[in-house]
Write a structure and sequence with these properties.
Layout lengths: L4 E5 L6 H14 L6 E6 L4 H8 L5 E5 L16 H6 L4 E4 L2 H6 L4 H13 L3 E6 L3 H5 L3 H16 L7 E4 L13 H18 L8 E4 L7 H5 L6 E4 L6 H13 L2
Parallel strand pairs: 1-2, 1-8, 2-3, 3-4, 4-5, 5-6, 6-7, 7-8
The structure holds 2-phosphoglycolic acid.
Length: 251
């Protein structure tokens, strides 16, 4: 069985001082952990965090986005090639906050995943339904549509991605999907990936949305939950370490 993958998404939080003390505490507490870990940091701090993570292999560096364009006149964008310069291994694409506040379509998200893959960066592709969509019984349809766009654009490279199921109503709200609710959607995504590639067992499907120290073990124990994408709880070393420990136990 592959190790669980615990990825922190710092969102637009941090400072030079806060990042240094958070990472130091996480590194200090991480001895003996048996899981894969990444921190997806604001772009402004990539160089700092790259330096802080140098010389160790447990925690990999990630970004929170990547441009769908390769190079050129795209003010404010950051290309996959630039991320590669900072040894970025993972890039979150299609986070619901990007879909919502930056109007990113399924097609744009698929292109972002493609750009990341072509630079050797693993995209962490986020899918998830809103509360209204869940209440209308459309959860499966929505996540399948979002993932289908990625499969369609990325073809045989699809086994190189990571998927994160993040119900929008659970992000930053303290409302977590129950382990059963999450597992149900993960099984749908797993089946869709299986139909797309014979290497689907390589693909980790993470759960994200108010995962914390108290609920991580139960979520990570589900058959198709291969890890977590952690927002708020990734900003507190003790909480992030507790989730890493839960991931190490269920590996
Ligand atoms: P949360 O965020 O853990 O704060 O709910 C998760 C995410 O948005 O990736």
């Amino acid at each position: 069985m592959k190790p669980k993958f615990i990825a922190g998404n710092w969102k637009m939080n941090g400072s030079l001082a806060a990042n240094a003390s958070l990472l130091q505490a996480v590194l200090d507490g991480s001895k003996g952990m048996n899981c894969q870990v990444a921190v997806c940091v604001p772009s402004a701090y990539l160089a700092q965090v790259q330096a802080l993570l140098a010389g160790q292999s447990l925690i990999a560096l990630g970004s929170q986005d990547v441009s769908a364009q390769e190079v050129g006149a795209f003010t404010g964008e950051i290309s996959a090639g630039m991320l590669k310069d900072f040894a970025v291994r993972f890039a979150i694409v299609g986070h619901s906050e990007r879909r919502q506040y930056h109007a990113e379509s399924d097609a744009v998200v698929a292109l972002k995943a493609q750009r990341a893959l072509s630079s050797g960066i693993t995209p962490i592709v986020c899918v998830g339904e809103t509360l209204a969509e869940r209440q209308a019984g459309q959860t499966e349809e929505v996540v399948r549509r979002q993932l289908a766009a990625i499969i369609h654009t990325n073809g045989h490279c699809i086994s190189e991605i990571v998927v994160a199921y993040e119900p929008v109503w659970a992000i930053g709200t303290g409302l977590t999907a129950t382990p059963e609710q999450a597992q149900e959607v993960h099984a749908v995504l797993r089946a869709q990936l299986k139909a797309a590639t014979s290497h689907s067992n390589r693909i980790s499907i993470l759960y994200g949305g108010s995962m914390n120290a108290a609920n991580a073990a139960q979520l990570l124990a589900q058959a198709d939950i291969d890890g977590g994408l952690i927002g708020g709880a990734a900003l507190k070393a003790a909480d992030f370490l507790a989730i890493m420990a839960a991931g190490s136990k269920t590996a």
